Amino acid sequence: MAQGVLISNPSAVPAQPHARDHNHTHAIARNSGRALEMDWVDEIRINLSAAEHRVASLPGRRTVKKDAQAAWLLKAITCIDLTTLNGDDTTERVKRLCAKARAPLRGDLLEALGFAGRGLHTGAICVYHRLVATAVEALDGSDIPVAAVSTGFPAGLIPHDLKLKEIEASVRDGAQEIDIVITREHVLTGDWRALYAEVRDFRAACGDAHLKTILATGDLKTLRNVAKASMVCMMAGADFIKTSTGKEGVNATLPVTLAMLRMIRVYEERTGFKIGFKPAGGISTAKDVLNYQFLMKEELGRDWLEPDLFRVGASSLLADIERQLEHHVTGRYSAFNRHPVG
């Protein structure tokens, strides 16, 4: 049976930020991967117009206000991979970012929201390899994992053996999650066996660290390519599939997300393994992240609103969420620069 992107409209309910322990990470049974099944890849079909209609209707159908919106945004904070991936990154910047990850909202806001003492923190910190050890030290005792971008991020065009060494070095330095980039040429030429072998090697190099595979969907040209690459990476053992590096011309979009979520659903139906999803790049406002949360809930269910299975790669998003929550508490918007991230 061909797996297309169809239209569905299940009900969504507000995510409750207190539903699970925020310090509880990676409770989901880890994807062991499986042999490459080319039948699973060849049968994938995407109905582009249906996908576009599905996501275009989302903002008009799903809105949350007041306390419900605050609950969704508090939940979103726990799923942010707070990220700095710039050429001018320094150890001091990373230390400040880690401090923000530990305490993403001001204490007075947490108290007003009835969330004081609940241990609210972001899902992870994401940095380049050279800064992994700095982040691990700054987060000691916090239960916040460090994610390292790897394998020649963002282009992924360094030699394969160096990619494996980079993964291994980040794991030695304490990274608990590795965000790798695939070789886009394998997708563009339809060399699915090469993509499978590459990601399988990355998974082996990660050891106990969780593998997040970045597809760089803006480079893959079609939703069918995105869907097929998603399926191959999951079969190769990916724990998460991720849209983008944030460095492409087009990064995370809702149509791409829909295609990837449908593949996650199919993979779970066939193997029993739940695969995480991480959109990244261009998600900078509270309104943006709410749409991704709604789509996750509708397509995959309540479990995919937790950091075990949902992450958002972002840098400025947290500041906007904090502004929205301050408005909810006080009725006033503050200047964006009053909410520094790092």
From TrEMBL:
Keyword Calcium included in the entry's annotation: no
Top-tier EC class = lyase
Q: Which CDD domains match?
A: DeoC (cd00959)
Positions of region (Disordered): 1-21
Asked if Lyase is a keyword of the record, the answer is yes
Q: Output a single Gene Ontology CC term carried by this record.
A: cytoplasm
For this UniProt record, the keywords arranged alphabetically read as follows: Lyase, Schiff base
Biased composition annotated in UniProt, kind: Polar residues: 1-11
Q: Give an example GO molecular function.
A: deoxyribose-phosphate aldolase activity
Q: Name one GO biological process term.
A: deoxyribonucleotide catabolic process
Protein family according to the UniProt entry: Belongs to the DeoC/FbaB aldolase family. DeoC type 2 subfamily.
| Family matches, as NCBIfam families | deoC (TIGR00126)
This one is known as Deoxyribose-phosphate aldolase
**Record lineage:** Bacteria, Pseudomonadati, Pseudomonadota, Alphaproteobacteria, Hyphomicrobiales
